[in-house]
Amino acid sequence: MRRDRGRGPSGADDTGQEPAPGAVPAVDTRLLVREEGVKGYVDEFRRKLRSGELGSLPVVLAVIIIWTVFGSLNSTFLSAQNLSDLSQQIVGTGMIAVGIVFVLLLGEIDLSVGSVSGLCAAIFAVLNVLNGMNEWLALLVAIAGGAAVGLIQGFFFAKVGVPAFVVTLAGNLAWNGLMLQVLGTSGTVNIPSESIVSKLYSTIYHSPAAAYVTAAVGVGLFLTASLLDAGRRRKARVPFRPIAEIVLRTVVIAALAFATAYILNQYQGLPLALLIFLIVLVLLDFVLRRTTYGRRIFAVGGNIEGARRAGISVPFIRMSVFSIAGTMAAVGGIFLAGQIQSASQTSGGGNLLMNVIAAAVIGGTSLFGGRGTVWSALLGALVIGSIQSGMNIMGVSNAVQFMITGSVLLAAVVVDSLSRRTQKAAGRA
C-alpha cells in the first residue's frame, strides 16, 4: 500500500486531520517511478526528455561521438598515451572552469579568470624563482591573491551594484596589466622542473596499484554516500533510492573508474594532476549539493527575490562565489604554468577564457543560473580537450579549431535555451 509523505497509516496528515471525503491524496512521482520498476524508470526518462530535463545526456553523447569520429579517422587518438596525455592537459582548463560553474549558477559571468590565472602564475614565479621565497609559501600567496581578486570584484558587483559583466571585463584588462608589471622587463620567468608547480603537473604514479586503488576508493565513497543518503531519507520518510538502483549506479561508476584506471596503466600510470582535479571536484560537489551554503547558491541563482525573502544574504553569496572563481582561476593558472614550466606575458591569454566558459556551458551548466554541477567542468573540459587533441593529430589548423570550438559552444547554448523553453512550457522552470 502506498503512503504519502506526512500521512499516517489511516491517511491522516501531520496535523492529525483526515482528508476530505473523495479527496485524491498527493503522491510523489518519484515513489511511483520506483514502485513500477524498470517500466517506471523508462517512463520517467521519456517524461524528462519531453520536458527538456536533459541533464548530462547531451555532453555524454558528444564525447562518445567525438571519440568515435576521431578514433575512426586515426587510431592514435584512442591510444593509451593520447588519452593519458589528455587527462593531464584538461586539468588547468578544468580547474578554472569549476570557478566559472559557481558564477554561472548565479546567472552571472566572470570575464577575468584568464587574466587572474596568468597573474597568479606570475606571482608564484616571481616570488619563488626570482626572489627565493619558499615555494609552498609562494604557492599559498599566489592562490590567496586569486581569492582576493575575486573578492574585490565580488564587492563591486554585490555591494556597489556594478554589473558583473562590466566589473570582470574591467578586471580582465586590469589584472593583465598587473601581471605584466609583476613580470617586469624580462617578460618571462622559467620555472625549474624540480619546482613544486612543475611536479604537480608532471608527476605520475607508475605503480598500477595507484590507479586501481584510487578507482576502488572512489567507488567505495560513492556507494557509502549513496547508502547513507538513502538511510537518512528513509528515516525522514521522504523518497529515497532503493538498494537495487544504488547497486546499479555503483556498478556503472565502477566500470567507468576501473576502465579509466586500466587505460592509464597501459601507458605510464596515474597522473597526480588528474588525481588532484578529481579530489577538488568531489569536495566542491559536496559543498554544492550537501551543504546549506551550496543550496543557497542554487536559491540565489534560481530566484534572487525569493532568496532574499527567505533570509539569505545575497551580497555574501555573490562575493563568496566570485572569490571561489578567483581561487580556482589561481589554481588553474598554477597547473598551466607547471605544464609549460614558465610564466610569461601570454599567460592566461589566447583562447583560454573562451575555453573555460565553453567547458562550463558545454558540460551542462545553464547560462540562466540555478542549474548545473561542478562535474560540468570535467565533462566540458573533456569535450574541448578531445576536439583540440583530435584536430591536432589530424593536423587541422588553429583557425579551423577555433571555428569548430565556437560552433560546439553555440550548439550547447542553443540546447540550454531550448531545454529551458521546453521546461517552461511543461511548467517546470
Structure write-up:
By secondary structure, the chain is mainly alpha-helical. The protein has a domain at 57-206 and 268-410: ABC transporter involved in vitamin B12 uptake, BtuC (Orthogonal Bundle), CATH 1.10.3470. 72% of the residues lie in helices and 2% in strands. The chain is built from 17 helices and 4 strands. The strands form 2 sheets. A two-stranded antiparallel ribbon has the order 1-4. Strands 2-3 form a two-stranded antiparallel sheet. Helix 12 packs across helix 14. The longest helix has 28 residues, at 208-235. The two termini are 32 Å apart. Mean pLDDT is 85; it is low at 1-19 and 22-28.
Q: Any chance you could write out the topology, listing elements then pairs?
A:
Blueprint: H1 29-35, H2 38-50, H3 57-73, H4 80-105, H5 113-130, H6 135-160, H7 164-183, E1 188-190, H8 196-202, E2 204-205, H9 208-235, H10 243-267, E3 270-271, H11 272-290, H12 292-302, H13 304-309, H14 314-340, E4 342-344, H15 352-362, H16 375-394, H17 398-425
Antiparallel strand pairs: 1-4, 2-3
Helix pairs in contact: 1-2, 3-16, 4-10, 4-11, 4-14, 4-15, 4-16, 5-6, 5-7, 5-14, 6-7, 6-14, 8-14, 9-10, 11-12, 12-14, 15-16, 15-17
Helical content stands at over 70%
CATH fold node name of one domain: ABC transporter involved in vitamin B12 uptake, BtuC
> Briefly, what CATH class of one domain?
Mainly Alpha
The count of strands amounts to: 4
Strand content: under 5%
Give the radius of gyration.
24 Å
Low-confidence stretches: 1-19, 22-28
For the report, how would you describe the main beta sheet? 2 strands, antiparallel
Subcellular location: Cell membrane
Pfam families: BPD_transp_2
Main location: membrane
Membrane topology: Multi-pass membrane protein
